[in-house]
Amino acid sequence: MIKKLMTLIIIILCSGCWNYQELNEYAIVTGMALDYKNNEYQLSFLISNGNKSENDQTKISVLTGSGITIYDAIKDVSLMSPKELYISHLSIVIVSEEVAKNGIADLIDFLMRDPQSHQNFYMVLAKNDKAQDMLSILSPLADYPSQKITLNVKNSAKLQGKITDANFNLFIHKLLAKGFEPIMNSLIIVGNEEEGQTPESQEKAKQDAYTKLDTIGIFKNDKLVGWATKEESIGISMLLGNISTVYFNIPYYNEYAVTVSNDYKIDYDVSKDKIIVNVNAEGSLKEISCNINLEDKNEINKLEKKVEEEMKKYMEDAIELAKNYQTDIFGFGNLIYKKYPKFYNEIEDWNTYFTNFNIEINTSFKYTSRGTLDQSLKQEIYE
Amino acid sequence: MNNRLSYTSLIYFILRATSLGISFALIVRFAKQDSWLAIIIGTIIGIIPVLLVEYIAKYESDKTFVDKIKIVFPKSYKIISTIMLIGFFTITIINFSNLTTLITSQFLSKTPNIVIAIVFIIPIALLITKDNKIIARVSLILFYVSIFLFLMSLLGFLNQLDLSNLKPALTNPILPSAYYYLSFNIMPIFLILFFPNKDIIPCLKKGYLLSSITIFIIIITTLAILGPDLTLLYQYPQFHILKRLYQDFLTFRLENIFAVQFIFDIFIFCVVCLKNCNHLLNFHQGYKQIIIPIILLIITTLLFATNTVSYTNMIINISLIFSIFFAFLILLFSIKIFTKKLIK
């Protein structure tokens, strides 16, 4: 009797029907944008599972709500949505410059605390424009704007050093670690943003507007304090060692020799008064606009020295920038803390101490390939 | 061999339950990145109670543990049994509420705790009506699943491990963490005594070692991936790291499947605890056997399941009090047996 009763209860309870909800009852959020307006958060959600259009394409929708807290703003958005908001598939969070300057601890707390949040998304800063506008710019190259931005970050981080592959997890890791400050990629809108939001814009070969990744934003704790230039962004990525490919336009004989480094190694010699950064890189020539003999070993050696100098300059500029903002985005303090914890703990404020801290950079670069051409084309033409 | 593996798996689950469920946060709170060292120290010192339990199990090995209590403590048998009963039942409530909290906070935030509690209490109640061999066999099946999930998740974490997160070493108090790890291990070790001595004795050290190794790996993996700061911040960091499998290892989200290994630990622990309560109450047949699970369900639902905030510190304090009691009891039991043997 007991067994029969138990079996019956198990059948009823374990049928998977508790809180049963069809997928189309959820508004699947794939992008989120946070702005400030009238001292309130303005939160926008990109809903990616709208009804299908005539040509069988899923329509997207951007809903914007406001509130004094993040949750308050979400609840305001949910008043507009006929479906329940579901943030498990969030892939991009765009934060406006204004919000970032005021601090994003509230947003991070919410995203970490919510059980629905999977925390595998990227965070980017909206540079010069409103974050919500970026969520609405359509692209023919991806189904949703969020997908376009995510793939853009992933691929750009892989293919060039200007962009960092820092996702949300890495951001909070740096935010909490001792002697480390976070950084974040930024996004800009190129073109007419209003026209870029229309489906007609997608039909054109040349779009009216598109989003483009820009330079790195520098944080101190949870607040945005400044921006890096393109060169400084490369320097930051190089010093963090999280790049797989980086390119340099090397000025040579009033022209350029474009060099790509695709084998990049970095190690640090840490002592209490100095950190020596040793960079060993290998790479290949991608484009040569100067007239040089590539079979001449001296020329190659000279070019390699130039690359080394350029790499060093990028990194030194990045360090200078970080020192100016008094924020150790490279985690040198973390290296000191891990090796000399007592010494680190004696320092009152590492970021202030960092401004006078000695960092030495040694670079070494070797060419391993000249591409598919053995010689400079200009050399052949003008000789 | 299979029988031995069944009991080894049973010990494996029992010993992992409290360490991963309750004491994990405490271990990391004090030792932070040195927690792995606290586990090693705790495991080494923990061999002492394991040996003592083995010594107790070997004494009059043909008799049940309840009979042994009657022999060793003929006058205070009832008091000791009552305290043990309260202890087992309290620890079960704590672990069971921890199980429902884990599920409501991480997987099913909209499902009422009562539903989760009922879903688990039914198989628990069903299993405690069976004899020890069946419980051991069930745990063996779960063991295979658990080990497979454990190894798969470990494989997925390999390229995410950042061992520099374990630096600086030896900068935090290790001994309090080792003490907590040890304390929370003593009571589960004591639970094992209720199983048939001849089955349990050969598996005790193996089960202990296996559970310690997996706990060590889980703690080192969690710290290496999250770092000490994030590990301290999350409610269930050991579950949280499973979310990261999605990034590099899996193209789909399976963290809930991988987290089942933690649920198995607590499930088997609750079964064994309640089974022991039935032993102490002499509830061996009929409807009596499911009285304890029903009381557990009611208490858990009424007292704990609706609140995940206020009982954390209470759990720690209560668990520690009972751990001290069981440590004292193991010691006293061993001394009594030793003196009895000496007199003979």
Q: Which secondary structure elements does this structure contain, and how are they paired or packed?
A:
The complex is a heterodimer of chains A (383) and B (344).
Chain A: H1 2-13, E1 26-37, E2 40-47, E3 61-67, H2 70-78, E4 84-86, E5 92-96, H3 97-102, H4 105-113, E6 122-126, H5 131-136, H6 145-159, H7 168-176, E7 183-191, H8 193-196, H9 199-203, E8 209-220, E9 223-227, H10 230-240, E10 246-252, E11 255-270, E12 274-288, H11 297-324, H12 332-339, H13 341-346, H14 350-354, E13 358-369, H15 377-382
Parallel strand pairs in A: 1-4, 1-5, 5-6, 6-7, 12-13
Antiparallel strand pairs in A: 1-2, 2-3, 7-8, 8-9, 10-11, 11-12
Chain B: H1 2-31, H2 35-58, H3 65-72, H4 77-106, H5 113-128, H6 132-157, H7 175-191, H8 197-233, H9 237-240, H10 245-248, H11 255-258, H12 260-281, H13 291-304, H14 312-343
Helix pairs in contact in B: 1-2, 1-6, 1-7, 1-8, 1-12, 2-7, 2-8, 2-14, 4-12, 4-13, 4-14, 5-12, 5-13, 6-12, 7-14
Quickly describe the structure:
Chain A is α/β, with parallel strands linked by helices.
Structure in words:
The complex is a heterodimer of chains A (383) and B (344). In chain A, strands 1, 2, 3, 4, 5, 6, 7, 8 and 9 form a nine-stranded mixed sheet that branches. Chain A has a four-stranded mixed sheet with strand order 10-11-12-13. In chain A, 40% of the residues are buried. Chain A folds into two domains: 26-227, no CATH class; 229-383, 2-Layer Sandwich (GMP Synthetase, Chain A, domain 3), CATH 3.30.300.210. Chain A has helices spanning 2-13, 70-78, 97-102, 105-113, 131-136, 145-159, 168-176, 193-196, 199-203, 230-240, 297-324, 332-339, 341-346, 350-354, 377-382; strands at residues 26-37, 40-47, 61-67, 84-86, 92-96, 122-126, 183-191, 209-220, 223-227, 246-252, 255-270, 274-288, 358-369. Chain A has 15 helices and 13 strands. Chain A has 383 residues and is of the alpha/beta class. Chain B is mainly α and 344 residues long. Chain B has a single domain, classed as Amino acid/polyamine transporter I, CATH 1.20.1740. Chain B is built from 14 helices and no strands. Chain B has helices at residues 2-31, 35-58, 65-72, 77-106, 113-128, 132-157, 175-191, 197-233, 237-240, 245-248, 255-258, 260-281, 291-304, 312-343. The radius of gyration of chain B is 20 Å and the shape is globular. The two termini of chain B are 35 Å apart. Classes of the chains: A alpha/beta (383), B mainly alpha (344). The interface between A and B is medium-sized, with 26 and 32 residues.
